[in-house]
Amino acid sequence: MQHIITGKTFYCGDFVDTDVMAPGRFEPFNNMESLARIALIDYESNPPFVNPETGRSIYSIIVAGNEFGCGSSRETAPQALHYAGTRVIIAKSFARIFFRNCINMGLLFPIIYDHPFKPSILGTDITIDFTQRYFQVHEEKYFFNGFGPLNAIIEAGGLTAYNKKRLLNGDDTCLLQT
């Protein structure tokens, strides 16, 4: 796990669903590049989240409103955002399945924070310090809660890596209930 992440911010409003993040009409996805190109393709914004020429996003951080990731349990949604270049999502709330997909796949760090930000945050550099548990916008620091028992999964790089590590260490009991 990278303990400090700095990057440009993309803004999303409330109730951005997984079908907007990775629309099913593009399936099957042939590879990571094709999935990255369609990340948030149906989210109306100027500029778009993904640069159509490069197929990547310059935004490594998304600031979102309520219930980010609602809709279906489409695993390709966090994958598309990750492959496009996103590393962290700061949202007022997440859909439960999307949140767990981010943690379990080890692709994105979902931070729940009832933030005051509006669309004008687009393009702003934000630094997130996971050790001190804060993110900084301009000169102001916003402290967030830790991930509790999920931190072990995050540190391992996802649920599969976490379980492999436990099994290699001789631990075959179920320590974390989901």
Features:
178 residues; Aconitase, domain 4; 6 helices; alpha/beta; 25% helix; seven-stranded mixed sheet
What's the quick description here?
With about 180 residues, the protein is an alpha/beta fold.
Note the topology.
Elements: E1 4-11, H1 18-21, H2 32-37, E2 59-64, H3 76-84, E3 88-91, H4 96-105, E4 109-112, E5 125-129, E6 134-137, E7 140-143, H5 151-156, H6 159-168
Parallel strand pairs: 1-2, 2-3, 3-4
Antiparallel strand pairs: 1-5, 5-6, 6-7
Structure description:
The chain has 178 residues and is of the alpha/beta class. It has a single domain (4-146), classed as Aconitase, domain 4. It is built from 6 helices and 7 strands. The protein has helices at residues 18-21, 32-37, 76-84, 96-105, 151-156, 159-168, and strands spanning 4-11, 59-64, 88-91, 109-112, 125-129, 134-137, 140-143. It has a 7-stranded mixed sheet. Helix 4 links the parallel strand 3 (88-91) and strand 4 (109-112). The longest helix has 10 residues, at 96-105. It is globular. The model has no long low-confidence stretch (mean pLDDT 92).
CATH superfamily: Aconitase, domain 4
* Gyration radius from CA atoms, angstroms: 16 Å
Structural classification: alpha/beta
Number of DSSP E strands: 7
Which strands sit side by side, in order, in the main sheet?
Answer: 4-3-2-1-5-6-7
Please, how many helices?
6
Q: How many strands, what sense, and barrel or not for the largest sheet?
A: 7 strands, mixed
What is the H/E order?
EHHEHEHEEEEHH
CATH secondary-structure class = Alpha Beta
Looking at the overall shape, the CATH architecture is: Alpha-Beta Barrel
